[in-house]
């Protein structure tokens, strides 16, 4: 099936026309500086018009599916309403996703459309992992719990890892580290997410390009008091001016690695804080799983940065995790020695292919 995959942000719309069987890209690009989502989609229509093979369905990436959506869902009026009710949980993302959905329904009223949620794969987290130790009413009345994100990627990559290992997912316990501009790590027990680093929002967990990941929440009040700024502004700094950018002034890992190589101390520190956080989570997740068959690296940094992989795995021999340096330098699929008890893999993620696949599966089941 030819699925147009849409990722609608507040200022841009990314689109890819994907063959759901093969993952082949038939067209793709980004429309930037969006005035409104309908005009952005008219631009997409203009760009893909005249292709011999028409679009058969639309798959939308939706960031927050709350506690409601455990699977992709067919888009209708009711779904639009429910995703609208989730906006308070994801004020940075869901409004734009929703605007993209509304515009696509107006643009292609005849095509089936499916929402694929970043949170859905993590709906199998047990309460011990998803509950925060906060007053119960925060949870029952306001939905304060860990949801987890990047689920489409963690799901896709763990399926591909099982192909590489030649063992069914139901036999495998995996740790998947998705390291891009956003970063998260997930413990996957026999195909199900059982622990993940992002929480109520994508701010928690690992150090990211511009997000702090884990911090003591007392920091927010402390910095607001010390600077006379609103807590909302301080929170905005934790999302946009922190992480690698906050530590060394750059958010791009390529730049950071080359600065660190040249002896730049701030870049070296940023790299070490980034890798230390991941290493800490790997240890915790081996404990959560009670052992681990494979540690899997994916996304821009995970797929391409041998330095990051090597620093993350350093000193983890006690967990059966070790690297073959030559394989790691070449970013081979299996970068651990053949006799290692835990495999370490590099598996490219492909969220658009995953969304196209899930869209096609759902429509085939109708
Ligand atoms: P997004 O979350 O925006 O999809 P990506 O998965 O594309 O992000 O990852 C972007 C990150 O990957 C950037 O920090 C970039 O520097 C890093 N990256 C890409 N290629 C390399 C490379 N060869 N070495 C180190 N980092 C890389």
What features would you describe in this structure?
- The protein is 42% helix and 17% strand.
- It contains 15 helices and eleven strands.
- The radius of gyration is 21 Å and the shape is globular.
- It has helices spanning 37-48, 77-85, 94-107, 127-130, 136-142, 151-165, 218-227, 231-240, 243-248, 253-261, 265-289, 299-304, 306-313, 325-329, 351-365, and strands at 2-8, 12-19, 25-32, 57-62, 73-74, 113-117, 173-179, 183-189, 192-196, 294-298, 343-346.
- Strand 7 (173-179) and strand 8 (183-189) form a beta hairpin.
- The longest helix is centred in the C-terminal third of the chain and has 25 residues, at 265-289.
- The strands form two sheets. Strands 3-2-1-4-6-5 form a six-stranded mixed sheet, with helices on both faces. Strands 9-8-7-10-11 form a five-stranded mixed sheet, sandwiched between helices.
- The protein binds adenosine-5'-diphosphate.
Share in β-strands: 15-25%
Task: Give the termini separation.
Answer: 14 Å
Mind telling me the C-alpha Rg? Answer: 21 Å
| Average pLDDT, all residues | 96
Strand order in the sheet with the most strands:
3-2-1-4-6-5
N-to-C order of helices and strands? EEEHEEHHEHHHEEEHHHHHEHHHEH
Count of individual helical segments: 15
Bound molecules: adenosine-5'-diphosphate
- Counting DSSP E segments of at least 2 residues, the number of strands comes to 11
Structural category: alpha/beta
**What is the share of helical residues?**
40-55%
What is the 3D form?
Answer: globular
Q: How can the largest sheet be summarized?
A: 6 strands, mixed
Low-confidence stretches: none
């Amino acid at each position: 099936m030819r699925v147009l995959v849409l990722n609608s942000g507040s200022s841009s719309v990314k689109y890819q026309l994907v063959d759901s069987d093969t993952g082949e890209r038939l067209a793709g690009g980004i429309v930037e500086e969006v005035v409104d989502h309908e005009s952005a989609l008219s631009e997409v229509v203009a760009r893909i018009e005249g292709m011999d093979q028409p679009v058969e369905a639309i798959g939308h990436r939706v960031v927050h599916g709350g506690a409601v959506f455990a699977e992709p869902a067919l888009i209708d009026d009711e779904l639009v309403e429910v995703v609208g009710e989730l906006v308070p949980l994801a004020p940075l993302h869901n409004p734009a996703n929703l605007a993209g959905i509304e515009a696509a329904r107006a643009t292609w009223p005849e095509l089936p459309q499916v929402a694929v949620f970043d949170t859905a794969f993590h709906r199998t987290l047990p309460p011990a992992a998803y509950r925060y130790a906060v007053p119960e009413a925060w949870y029952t009345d306001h939905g304060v719990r860990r949801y987890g994100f990047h689920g489409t990627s963690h799901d896709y990559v763990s399926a591909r890892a099982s192909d590489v290992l030649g063992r069914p997912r139901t036999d495998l316990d995996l740790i998947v580290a998705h390291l891009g501009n956003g970063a998260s790590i997930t413990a996957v027990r026999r195909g199900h997410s059982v622990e993940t680093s992002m929480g109520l929002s994508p701010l928690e967990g690992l150090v990211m390009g511009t997000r702090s990941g884990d911090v003591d929440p007392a920091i927010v009040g402390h910095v607001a008091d010390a600077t006379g700024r609103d807590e909302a502004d301080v929170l905005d700094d934790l999302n946009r001016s922190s992480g690698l950018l906050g530590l060394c002034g750059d958010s791009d890992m390529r730049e950071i690695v080359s600065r660190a190589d040249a002896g730049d101390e701030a870049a070296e520190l940023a790299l070490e804080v980034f890798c230390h956080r991941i290493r800490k989570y790997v240890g915790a997740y081996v404990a959560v799983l009670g052992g681990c068959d494979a540690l899997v690296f994916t996304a821009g940094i995970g797929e391409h940065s041998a330095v990051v992989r090597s620093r993350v795995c350093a000193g983890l021999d006690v967990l059966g995790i070790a690297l073959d340096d030559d394989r790691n330098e070449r970013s081979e699929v299996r970068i651990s020695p053949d006799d290692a008890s835990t495999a370490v893999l590099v598996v490219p993620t492909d969220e658009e292919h995953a969304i196209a696949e899930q869209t096609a599966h759902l429509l085939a089941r109708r």
